[in-house]
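To: structure subgroup
Subject: Chain for Friday's discussion

All,

I'm putting the inputs and outputs inline so they're searchable in the archive.
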Amino acid sequence: MVPPENLFGALPTWVGVYVLVALAFGLSGLIIYRRVFSLIAVGKPVNRFDHPMRRVIGAIPLIFGQRKVLQSVSLRRDRAGLAHAFIFWGFLSFLTSYILFIFGDSVWEPFSSKLLTDAGIEVFVYYLDVLAVIFLVVLSWAALRRWVARPHRLTFDLTQKRESAIILMLIGLLMVLTLLTEAFHVASGGQGAHASAPVGSALGEALESAGISEGVANGLHGLFWWVHLGIILGFSLYIPLSKHMHIIATPFSFLFRSLEAKGTLSTPGDLETAESFGAAKVQDFTWRELLDGYACAVCGRCTDACPAHLTEKVLSPMHIVENLKEHVLETAPGVIQGLDQQGEKPLIGRWIQEEALWDCLTCGACVQECPVGVEHVDTIADMRRHLVMEQAKMPESAQSALLSME
């Protein structure tokens, strides 16, 4: 997308771009710090910094290869993983274009051509134009699947929130604006590599044939370009306030994943010196367990695979993780300020039912299915430890089993 020459005929384009970027990213960073990182830091320390090279190398296929997303893809039953991987890789493609054509060319016009050459830009622009059209098709399919076809895992209350609709509409709007910006660039008499976009140039020629003047086309080109940039920056503000925070949290989730063998439960620590056992308050959980709520994509895969849920028990691993996050958002700011209200606003019993905790078989199906590396079982086990060791609460069946062992 070719940047317009100026903003309102007064400021150079790059000034407007970087002022808006500084404001949006600065506010976004503040939101992420206050809403995420400062609250996660309330949790107990846990060593997830060992074997750094193993962690980084192992995280690469999980993040960029979308390995966990693609693990359950079935061309007959579930093609959502392919769609998500396409959106992720498409996002990286458009992010590259924003760096080149918005943040680079707005400061120095030849920036992208020096890096890619004019022929390279033509190929890249052609690719992005076709990609935008495919994006619109995939997004339409995703909307029909989520709200019309609705597989079982998308029938839960959390998966039906408006956040998903908002993000699909914003991505779709970005694709439409990409095509329109290219179209009005061509209609205004624009030449060069960007005029080679197949869909954009066809629309531009159609607009010229319809009699649009160069001045109007030039004005609309600038308008759509700035609206496009505004939506991009709007994403940076919306993501930390929605479930799409998983876009930022998931790489950390994979990087700080457990390196133990599958099925290994976290240890309760030194029983002789511990001041408390298990977890029922924000500060009782590890920071890694608190991170899970922000990494959760609310896709429903964990609950859909849970054998307890399949037998119509109360347990829903997705709700456990999400409700813990809601408890963190509600009470952790007070803990930081020295005003702990968790006595009046308890986690267990208010956000999470005791019965749900005891329904868990610790089989790890939820962890295996999770595409973003959430470790549900450790969190559930810590809350059960609290019930048993701090409150002497357990189901009658568990009491009978322990008495028999004794």
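Points worth raising on Friday:
The mean pLDDT is 90.
Strands lie at 6-7, 11-12.

D.
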